[in-house]
Amino acid sequence: MAVFKVVPDIWSVGAVDWDVRSFHGPSYSTYRGTTYNAYAIVDDKTALVDTVHRPFAQELIQNLKQVEGLANIDYVIVNHIEPDHSGSLPEIMKLYPQATIVCTAKAQEGLRRYYDGDSWNWQIVKTGDSLELGHHTLQFIETPMMHWPDNMVTYIPQKQILLSNDAFGQHFAWSHPFDDQNSLEEIMVEATKYYANILTPFSKIVAKKLSEILAMNLDIKIIAPGHGIIWRSHPEKIIEAYRRWANAEADPKALIVYDTMWGSTEKMARAILEGIARAGVPAILYKASASDSNDIMAQLLESKAIVVGSSTINNDMLVPVAAFLDEVKGLKPLNKLGAAFGSHGWRGGAVESIEKQLTEGKVQLAMDSLKVQWAPDEDFLEECRDWGFALGAKIKG
Hints:
This protein has helices spanning 57-65, 83-86, 89-95, 105-114, 184-199, 203-215, 235-246, 264-278, 293-301, 319-331, 350-360, 378-396; strands at 4-7, 10-12, 15-17, 22-23, 28-29, 34-36, 39-41, 47-49, 75-77, 100-103, 121-124, 130-132, 137-142, 152-156, 161-165, 222-225, 251-259, 283-287, 303-313, 316-317, 337-344, 364-365, 370-373. It has 12 helices and 23 strands. It folds into 2 domains: 4-246, Metallo-beta-lactamase, Chain A (4-Layer Sandwich); 252-396, 3-Layer(aba) Sandwich (Rossmann fold).
């Protein structure tokens, strides 16, 4: 990627990964690719904020050579130790062995486990500490569990820029780095998916830390994250979105997730959707086995209610529905209403398992479950519509 000037004396020097289609192993789909953002600050003392995924180390090194006035690196700021951000650190330290690594105590602990850094220079910082480069001051704010214990962000008051690493990011590859140079709608789709699948379990912590940062009255004009675009025109949009998501504010909308063997549960799902829509509540339908679970989670983040259905097999739900509910339990979404439905043959079990999983995931059951043996007739489908209508009324209420 070409080197970009973010503001005078601060450069984007990271790498764009156009080809990656999964992240965190196979667990996160990245259909728009991603970036590994790093930033160089040129001053009396120079600083590199974060590095890149190790396969892109040489690209980072070549980018640094293109930065005007950067002949050396005095400090390497490690906002987060996850290897997609720190993987090139050993290569950087080979080139600049005199550099001092600036990070939290937890980050130092993790970096020493990841890499052989006994010979490196270290400076441990905490919230309230700062580092003078000359004309720029780096102010550090610890953000533990956004989303690892080591996380911090770096603020530069002279340029009103927040270098936020994983916070406020998206998996979004680009040819031009700024929000106003890309589709804001597409950016927000990826930002929603990012928060839903990575930060949802830590929402209470995110809400608390976000309140603390806002209480500092920092004048933030630009947010430069570790993945995706740089927010220079609409930083308030992503800050407000994080506030909503962290406080579990959701639209009066229903998400229906189901799977089916011979079509009975699918007929129920579509009738339930009709009933919810009759109540004036938007609803969206996903077949678990045919859908990307990360996209479903993004919809769940923005929905007040989740309705889950399955046919029965071996006295339990179908595997794609079970896998989805395992993710719900792991992500622990807050303040969600839920309901279960399904079909069975000679013996049931799926609906009861769904309700158990929803309850364990802290989803509040809003309706008694709805189930049918063998196949629904038209009278029962009308009952499904009525059931959906009643649920829609509760979502609105």
